[in-house]
Amino acid sequence: MDNLLFRYRSNKYRFIQKLPLIIIISCLFLTTKTSDAQENQKDTGKYAETKESSLGRELISVTQETQYLNKKLKYFKNIILHQNKTQTELKRQIASLEEKNTALEKENATLESMLSIQAVDLRKPELIKADEKNLNKVINLNLGFAYGIKGQIKEAIVEYEMALRYDPDNKDIHYNLGYLLSKDNKYIQAIEEYKKALTGLPQDREVYYNLAIIYAIYLKDSRTAQQYYQKFLTVPLTEIHLVPSQKEPIQRN
User: How many whole angstroms separate alpha carbon 195 and alpha carbon 191?
Assistant: First the structure.
């Protein structure tokens, strides 16, 4: 019994002696575990940080690429918009040119029709008996007509203007004076005299025709020329002095 007790005490003593070593080893083991855990935590944190940084860079890259693609898309949209505007403008210009071309064709056709007709140059003075009251007027009318036939335009104008002093409402005098003034390149004055020659009778066709010629050829006002030519066409042909022209049509500048 004593022997067993001795052995127990000896073993207990040896255990006590080894206890610090056991504690130290346990502490080292725990320290190692803690260190490993901390290292694992650090690795996990680094991985997470690395992964987050990689995702951030990828996000930045995708954002930049998106911005670039949006700029290109906007650029191409602007090109398409510009092309559409250009096409619209070209269509408008083509339509405008076609309209002008149609108007010119109509104007040329009207002018060709106008130039196929020739009006009487001067109206002959009426055969009236000269007396003390109308002697001067008859002289002026005859001289004006004679000068006009010979091509002495300025002298003829003077005579017809003097004749108007004696007979200011004479339509034939206004007509002849309008004709002579147009020959003298005084187109505005000629127009005024032609308008004074209008009577509301068929002979107004000559006036409308000459007005149309002045506006079309000399004043380059095709719209007004066509208006007067239409009036010329609507007046009845009774007692008219207009005949088809045997001359070549006048070419416009």
Answer: 6
Output Rg (C-alpha) for the chain, integer angstroms: 58
Residue with tokens 């009778």: 201
Tens place of pLDDT per residue across the chain (253 aa): 555 444 545 555 554 555 555 565 655 555 555 555 556 555 565 555 665 677 777 778 778 888 888 888 888 888 888 888 788 887 888 888 777 777 777 777 767 776 677 666 788 887 766 666 688 888 999 999 999 999 999 999 999 999 999 999 999 999 999 999 999 999 999 999 999 999 888 888 999 999 999 999 899 998 899 899 999 988 876 544 444 433 333 333 3
Q: Are 234 and 208 in contact (CB under 8 A)?
A: no
Task: Give the residue extent of every domain in the chain.
Answer: 56-99, 116-244
Place of tokens 């010329």: 232
CATH superfamily of 116-244: Tetratricopeptide repeat domain (1.25.40.10)
CA distance 198 to 54: 99
Helix intervals (H) in the chain: 2-115, 135-150, 153-166, 171-183, 187-196, 204-213, 222-234
What would the two tokens of residue 163 be?
């004749």
DSSP 185: T
